[in-house]
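Revision sheet: C-alpha cells.
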Amino acid sequence: MADSQLRPPTMADVARVAGVSHQTVSRVLGGHPNVRDATRARVLRAIEEMGYRRNSSARALATRRTRTLGVIASDTTLYGPASTLFALEEAARAEGYLVSTVSLRELTMETLSEALDHLSEGGVEGVVAIAPQRSAVDALAELRCPFPVVVVGSGTGDIPSVTVDQHLGARLATSHLLAAGHRTVWHLAGPEGWQEAADRAAGWRDTLEEAGVEPPVMLRGGWSPLSGYRAGQELAGWLGRGLTAVFVANDQMALGVLRALREAGVRTPQDVAVVGFDDIPESEFFAPPLTTVRQDFYTVGKRGIALLLELIEGRAPATTARIAIEPQLVVRASTFPYAAQPEGVLH
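Predicted:
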C-alpha cells in the first residue's frame, strides 16, 4: 500500500497535485487576495479530492490562536443551565470557535481550579462559566487565570458577567398579581446560595414593600417539582387566611404547586393564582397554562460569547463589563380571573 494511503494528506501533497507551491496552498487556505482565480480553483479542487484537513495544532502554533473557548457548567439537568450551555455553544460556533466543556457536579474552589487547569492545558483562549451560585463566583474571583473569564447566571462580584435581570423578573411577576387585585403575594423561593433565587426573592419583597404590603412568610424549595409539591401542600393550608396568589421561583416547582393545590381542592386561578419563572417549553401545557417570566437564554449565550471575545481581543474593560438582559412576563390562564382583569394586559 502506498505511503499516501497510510497517512492523511498534507499541504505538500495538495501543492503537488495542484501543481503549485506550498506557499500558494497556504495563501489559498488563508484567503489571501493575491492568488489568481484559476489557481485558487485548482487548489480547492485538489483539497476536496484528497480530503485534506488543515492541521489545527500547526495553525495554532503559527497564529497563537486556537479558536477554542472553554465552558464550565454544572446542574445541567436544570432547564436554565442546560439552555444556557446550548446557547453558548451555538453562539461560539457562529463565531467560528470550537467549545471545550467541563461539567462539574459542584462548583468549589478545588473543582473550578482543576477545570481551569484542564482548559488551560487544552489551549483555550477564554472561558465562560455558568455559575449561578454566589460561592462559585467568589471562588472564580480568587483564582488567577491566564485568559479572560466571563460569568453567566450571576451578576455579582468583579468578574465580567452576562445575566438575566432576575430582580426585574420578580417585580414583573409580583406587580402582575397585585394589579389583578390580590392583596398580597406569597413566594416559594429557590435554594439557599443561588444568586438567582436571592435576586428573585428580593424583587418580590421590594415590590410588596413599595406597595405598602407586608411580605408573608417566604417558603423555600429546591427547584424540583417534588419540592414544589411539598410547598404546595403547605400553601393549601393557608387558604382562607389570606392566600390568594403565589409567585414561584421556577416553573418546575410551580408544576408541583399546581398539583398539590388541585389535590387539595383548590382551583387555579379562581382560588389561588400562580406565576412561575423561566417559561420552560412545557409551561403552556400545564393545567392551567402557566403565567411565567421568560428568560432569553439565546441572547444570554450570544452576549456572553461576544463579551468574552471582546475581552480576548482587548476591546472591553476586564472588571466593569456587566450586561443585564431584560426578562418578559408571559401571561396565561393560571393568573386570571381573581378580580376584574386590568385593562391593557396582553395574553
